[in-house]
Amino acid sequence: MSELVKLPNIGKKIEEQLEQVGVKTPAELTGLGIRKVFERIMTIDETSCINKLYALEGAIQGMRWHDLPENEKMALKEYYLTLKRSER
User: Which end of the chain, N or C, is more open, meaning fewer C-beta atoms within 10 Å of its C-beta?
Assistant: First the structure.
């Protein structure tokens, strides 16, 4: 078990995906930023959903993703939809 699973929202599956894309510590997750990390995860798991993006943001902020402020969720949703549109 790495330090990553000690973060809120990070279970075994997301931990494995983070490690697959080169993120091994909370500091690396924060340093790279969730958008870059999420894009990397999408290259190995194209089924990654918005909830995973929320989970990563919550992990960085030290809170359950459900508790993220609505304005942050909206900004992340817009970003996510942009990514999904560009896949077409």
Answer: C
